[in-house]
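Check the record.
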Amino acid sequence: MSQIQTIMTNDPTGQQLVEFAKATAIQLVKNQLTRGQIRNIFTEVRKIEALWEADVNDHTKPLRRLMMLKPKLDYQTARIPQVARLKEVLSEAIDQIVQAKDADEQNERFKRFVNLFEAILAYHRSEGGRN
């Protein structure tokens, strides 16, 4: 089981999420990924989150938009190679959301996805990530 799969499916306290987010952020800082480059992606995730919360009973539209984030991440990685590690992490987390067996599990995994991304962004800043 990968670390991301564990975080998305079996990390009730969030301890593994926090540790993984910090390690990932440190990598991103070393790779010289800027806060602005991360925030561009994070803004789209926030829009998806708003759609997700707007219709609790039907996540078809936000799930489709979430899946479309994967090719956007590929595009960003082709333009800015420093995005590669973030793309790997987020793409695997998106796959975990899609693979959930029911709506409740999908909701929980989506929340963990957002928490993971928020933690990565926060640690990126605290570890000295540049603008």
